[in-house]
């Protein structure tokens, strides 16, 4: 199972739109999705109904969010008017918190979509990239889980309360250090070195059945899945990279080589169909590339010759 896409819908009935004067706006309530507050606004300007989509994330830390979004206006009879806006980016260091446009002519909106002065609008959003946003934990491994655990793993001074048997069943590494007979590995607490607590949280969420994988978390999860030899985590990361990731082919081929992800490698090669595709993956040192990939790409380059 791959991680679900970061998608959501803001639905709003804007009341008494017919009473809006030129330059006036009406705002929706703020809704939180993926730990970020959002809202929409409609207004009347230059003979049009305007629509704006706002990110209300506080600018106290550095962050960036890139989205694709689509606006849909519905009539009472089911008639639909829609417009897409691709790849809008919101940043903590920008003065702009909203993006929008003249959505539909005011007279067309009044004639075909307004009902008793009201209109119904949906804003469909897909988050393509999100950095610097601290997301909520999908599962807790803190002291509240102590009655269900028999070992505590310490990562960067953070304690994770875990079932020794479950973790050992997923990982040959943890089986060797948690299920042996030596006195050292019978300790209640075990400290893990060279590991970030944030990455370890995502890693545990994944093997416990949650879906924390996205383009921001996958590098850390893959690294730990490789170190701790966890096949199920590797498989789920590979499936995400094949089906859902927005990473470039070059980035995916690097990961395929580093973690021996053969299905990902084959998938990337199959998607290279043009000279531009070839240039994009040949744009780094050949020594960094999988020799079998270099061979396959050279064959493709010959086939693409005029």
TrEMBL record:
<dbReference type="InterPro" id="IPR002083">
    <property type="entry name" value="MATH/TRAF_dom"/>
</dbReference>
<protein>
    <recommendedName>
        <fullName>BTB domain-containing protein</fullName>
    </recommendedName>
</protein>
<feature type="domain" description="BTB">
    <location>
        <begin position="149"/>
        <end position="208"/>
    </location>
</feature>
<dbReference type="InterPro" id="IPR011333">
    <property type="entry name" value="SKP1/BTB/POZ_sf"/>
</dbReference>
<dbReference type="Pfam" id="PF00651">
    <property type="entry name" value="BTB"/>
</dbReference>
<dbReference type="InterPro" id="IPR052664">
    <property type="entry name" value="BTB-MATH_domain_protein"/>
</dbReference>
<dbReference type="InterPro" id="IPR008974">
    <property type="entry name" value="TRAF-like"/>
</dbReference>
<dbReference type="Pfam" id="PF00917">
    <property type="entry name" value="MATH"/>
</dbReference>
<dbReference type="InterPro" id="IPR000210">
    <property type="entry name" value="BTB/POZ_dom"/>
</dbReference>
């Amino acid at each position: 199972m791959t991680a679900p896409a970061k998608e959501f819908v803001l639905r709003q009935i804007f009341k008494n739109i017919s009473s809006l004067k030129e330059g006036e706006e009406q705002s929706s309530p703020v809704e939180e999705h993926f730990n970020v507050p959002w809202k929409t606004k409609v207004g009347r300007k230059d003979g049009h109904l305007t629509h704006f989509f706002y990110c209300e994330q506080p600018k106290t830390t550095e962050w960036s969010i890139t989205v694709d979004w689509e606006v849909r206006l519905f009539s009472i009879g089911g008639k639909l008017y829609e417009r897409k806006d691709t790849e809008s980016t919101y940043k903590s260091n920008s003065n702009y918190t909203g993006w929008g446009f003249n959505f539909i002519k005011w007279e067309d909106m009044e004639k075909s979509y307004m009902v008793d002065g009201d209109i119904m609008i949906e804003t469909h959003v897909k988050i393509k990239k999100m950095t610097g946003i601290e997301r909520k934990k999908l599962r807790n491994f803190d002291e509240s889980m102590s009655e269900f655990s028999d070992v505590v793993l310490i990562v960067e001074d953070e304690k994770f309360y875990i079932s020794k048997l479950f973790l050992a069943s997923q990982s040959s590494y943890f089986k060797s250090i948690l299920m042996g007979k030596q006195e050292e590995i019978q300790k209640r607490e075990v400290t893990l070195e060279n590991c970030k607590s944030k990455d370890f949280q995502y890693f545990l969420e994944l093997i416990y059945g949650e879906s924390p994988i996205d383009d921001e978390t996958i590098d850390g999860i893959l690294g730990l899945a490789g170190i701790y030899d966890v096949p199920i985590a590797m498989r789920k990361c590979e499936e995400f990279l094949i089906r859902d990731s927005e990473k470039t082919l070059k980035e995916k081929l690097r990961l395929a080589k580093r973690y021996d992800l053969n299905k990902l490698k084959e998938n990337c090669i199959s998607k290279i169909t043009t000279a531009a595709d070839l240039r994009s993956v040949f744009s780094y040192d050949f020594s960094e590339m999988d020799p079998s990939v270099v061979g396959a790409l050279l064959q493709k380059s010959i086939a693409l010759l005029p």
